[in-house]
Amino acid sequence: MTINLIGTGNVAWHLANQLAKIPECTLQQIAGRSLKKGEEFSHLAEEVTTITSLKPATITIIAVSDTSIENVASLLPYQDTLVVHTSGSIPLETIPQDRKGVFYPLQSFSKKDTIDFTNIPICIEATTQEDLETLQKLALFLSSKVYHINSQQRKQAHLAAVFVNNFANHCYTIAQELCDTHQLPFELLHALLEKTAQKAIDHSPSDVQTGPAKRNDTNVIAAHVDMLQEDDHKSIYQTLTASIIAHYGKEL
Amino acid sequence: MTINLIGTGNVAWHLANQLAKIPECTLQQIAGRSLKKGEEFSHLAEEVTTITSLKPATITIIAVSDTSIENVASLLPYQDTLVVHTSGSIPLETIPQDRKGVFYPLQSFSKKDTIDFTNIPICIEATTQEDLETLQKLALFLSSKVYHINSQQRKQAHLAAVFVNNFANHCYTIAQELCDTHQLPFELLHALLEKTAQKAIDHSPSDVQTGPAKRNDTNVIAAHVDMLQEDDHKSIYQTLTASIIAHYGKEL
After folding, report:
1. Pair B145, B159 in one domain
2. Model's pTM, two decimal places?
């Protein structure tokens, strides 16, 4: 199985490093406009700076920004091979080639982090059973968690990921701001933050919800809103609290 | 050092189990109206069902609901000993005794979880240096993380904890609902959820924020709001997104 990889961002970097380790795969070429010789990728595969310099491979993985996928795919100088993208929110059909697929690792990547790929869910999609099986084979070389989901489901998973990642992290950011304002170290909240995540994984998050909103404790809620100095912190507190009250009120 | 513990809830249960293990402490009595002989606490200390049956101890720890603390303290049948509560949001002054304090372990406790107390931050407060030192000694028997903070700071830490715990968990709950609605297993998001928490601990959460709101990607934001079916999910999405845009917009 030969692989071409297009892209030089976080996802491409982590994928390249993992793919280069798989004995059954040959990472043939890596394409990126911004590639500089001798940096980051040069030890992993042949580097090229134009898409048209790529030679045919079993799978071509396009790991570029959502808005560039279609254009990049249309520049590929070969046909009748499998072309996949790695995006959570872009439909399969965006790829113009007949043999198209999706290879979406559902994780937040940054180059500075080491990542244990074996636990990262990889969501795959293709138009034929044969291509799906090829993607599944590749995915299983990397991870034990492979999911065959369609483009609609993938979009929903990506939206759910915004809540789990972007929105949870913004709640952490506000907590850190509150700590900073009142001369408290944010590490005071580290154990709680970690435990909250672990409980949501070990149990169902709705089963472990606690706090003034869950109890509909209007005195504490009013005191908290009063304590918050920033308008957007107040809005977030009130909006999330109203949703929690509505959610658990239904259960009574 | 002898200790009396009042309460039979999650905090009391975990504290009793930890305190009973400390060689330098004697867990003398545990008081709770709902105590049933031979259950949960009977192997740890003498059980009593009325506050007035308690005998003097070096420290009396009141681990009951916020609204009951003052009343419980006022029933204590002895004087001139240190009386503390374990609440994040109740002021020190709520305890009527002269020798008063706070012993607040900042963690989310449930009886079914095992807890590694050594990493739990314990926030302490007292009116005299001597009592503060006694509390510090006790706290250090349990944990390596002891913070001396005042009642105002403790209230703020408790408010920040609502964001880190209650609100992050509600974001997880919404993500799980989105998964359920679209026949996706929530475990698809476990790796991301865990990584998000770990990154916020290893780095500063505001340094690792990503996503459409951070990028002010109005197309993806509009598509996401459109995909959400519940009004309160839309409100949460919009409120958090507006706050993220405002937060990172400031930095430009």
Report:
1. no
2. 0.92
